[in-house]
Amino acid sequence: MSTSSGSLLRKFGMIVFSFVFIAAGIYHFTEAEGFAAMLPEFIPWRTMIIYLTGVLEWILAILLFIPSLRRKTGVVIAWYLVLIFPANIYAAFASIPAPGFESSPSWALWVRLIFQPLLICWILWATKPPYRANTGYILSDDLQKN
What we know:
two-stranded antiparallel sheet, mainly alpha
């Protein structure tokens, strides 16, 4: 695969990811109670946290389209996904169904845990700067003169 087709594939992956994050943010508002249930009861303001994380996902999705911030945003998203992973683990242990569902098979709750690391790999790959054999990694699309 050529460098330009690799960069094009990464940009496509980044765009698809941003739409996934926008949809997830919307889902935080339409299924707030289901998401709040994924947080242990000792956490205060669970529904407000869900709304705020939904807005955060929208902001991060939009920041992906700013070339000079793309790589940093990808890293922030990866950390965000790491930080919310315990909610998925809690939901699996407590048999809390996925938001929007009244019940979920136990195996599905555990399989869902696989997707968080995949999302992390996806965003880090999609926001990785292009590599040029003669100059190395380009840190920002804005710096490219070619």
